[in-house]
Write a structure and sequence with these properties.
mainly alpha, Rna Polymerase Sigma Factor, Chain: A, Arc Repressor Mutant, subunit A, WH-like_DNA-bd_sf
């Protein structure tokens, strides 16, 4: 089996089958990541699809880390997930304003308490850094390269995010007593 770097060279050269090969290798991990960020499995599938379409479209400018587009794909899935959540909120708000004889409430997702709910409350920049460095285990240097930001920015965002998450979890634990 080819490594990501070899498949990437084929993809950059316009080989569409290389996109399928990358999809086969990374789809499951990206789907798990999307499921962490979204309550609806269909939206998670859409976020993964969007990431691969964007990978193909932007293949000339994608930043690789250690020869792999995975960190870029993880970030793109997170961005697509935020966009899907935002559009879903707008759609539900529009439905709520629409006059109807029998208004039905939008289905509610699973309980949004816990670490993932706290993660979703973080600003997008901090969320991306936490996902790549803490959840996915990439080195801060690689996170900086993937996001196109200085290493110091990664460190400060990670520090702020950890403090916010710690405060959120402390508040949550206090509510249990």
């Amino acid at each position: 089996m080819e490594d990501d770097a070899a498949v990437w060279r084929r993809l950059r050269a316009g080989d569409e089958s290389a996109l399928g090969d990358l999809f086969d290798v990374h789809e499951a991990r990206l789907f798990r990541h999307a499921c962490r960020l979204l309550t609806d499995r269909e939206d998670a599938k859409d976020a993964v699809a969007v990431a691969f379409f964007e990978l193909w479209r932007k293949r000339a400018s994608v930043r690789l880390v250690d020869g792999s587009p995975l960190p870029w794909l993880l970030t793109t899935v997170a961005n697509a997930a935020r966009n899907l959540e935002r559009s879903g909120r707008r759609y539900r708000a529009l439905l709520a304003k629409t006059p109807s004889a029998s208004v039905t409430e939008a289905p509610s997702g699973p309980d949004e308490s816990g670490v993932l709910a706290a993660l979703r409350k973080l600003p997008a920049g901090e969320q991306s850094v936490v996902v790549l460095s803490v959840l996915e285990g990439y080195a801060e240097r690689d996170v900086a390269q993937t996001l196109g930001i200085p290493l110091g920015t990664v460190k400060s965002r990670l520090s702020r995010a950890k403090a916010r998450l710690r405060d959120e979890m402390t508040a949550m634990e206090a509510s249990w007593t």
